[in-house]
Amino acid sequence: MRFGGLTALNNVNFQINRGEVRAIIGANGAGKSTFFNCLTGVLRPTSGRILLNGENVAGMPSNKISQRGMARSYQITNILPNATTLENVRIAAQSRRHGWSMLKHRDGYRDLIDKAEAVLDSVGLRPKADELAANLSHGEQRNLEIGIALATEPQLLCLDEPTAGMSGAETHETMQLVRSIAKNLTILIVEHDMQVVMELCNQITVLHYGEILAQGTPAEIQQNARVQEVYLKT
Ligand SMILES: Nc1ncnc2c1ncn2[C@@H]1O[C@H](COP(=O)(O)OP(=O)(O)OP(=O)(O)O)[C@@H](O)[C@H]1O
Ligand SMILES: [Mg+2]
Fold this sequence. Notes:
Helices cover 38% and strands 17% of the residues. By secondary structure, the chain is an alpha/beta fold.
């Protein structure tokens, strides 16, 4: 992925298998969010392929990629503040499932509400269903964003610093949440807290100036001399 003269991602040969929970780590500006933006159709990569279940989705519009089963949350919270918590999730469910046409069906709308309520249960926000999203706490808004992504029924969920700006207690809760949804999903997560990464993930990919510096298990990454030098220096 190039931005004019800047090569933000270069030669990123990367594979994630179904059921994996993988962290992407790397210093500020390493290219982590850009990687997610390419995967999810926010950016059109200047070259390369992105295969999702064998289909090249590079350069596809993000709604098409979403319909094929990839969802993401943003580093900076991206919700509809003037809609209720339930509506935020319901709209996302609608975009994925049947589009507008399903509203013609008698039970379609009820199905969407049921789906949205189930998602709110899974992210612990059911009691806040009728609250305007703007009135939720920062941590609740971050979890709502995960709910919005889940409502699109992804196979692969990309979480960009889901615990950014959270208190210690909120971070712990969100990590419990990610752990519970990881049972049925493939997850890619950008996370700076190394303790969280080590506990949560089976595999870690380290980005450094847009290139892959190392990939491996948490133990392998911790012992990797290059990684220690450029990223894990204590
Ligand atoms: N839309 C864009 N236009 C131009 N340059 C960009 C754009 N998006 C990202 N960049 C640049 O690409 C590089 C990678 O940025 P990116 O946001 O992907 O880093 P990151 O690893 O997510 O960092 P952070 O940990 O701070 O979130 C940076 O040099 C950034 O300035
Ligand atoms: Mg980023």
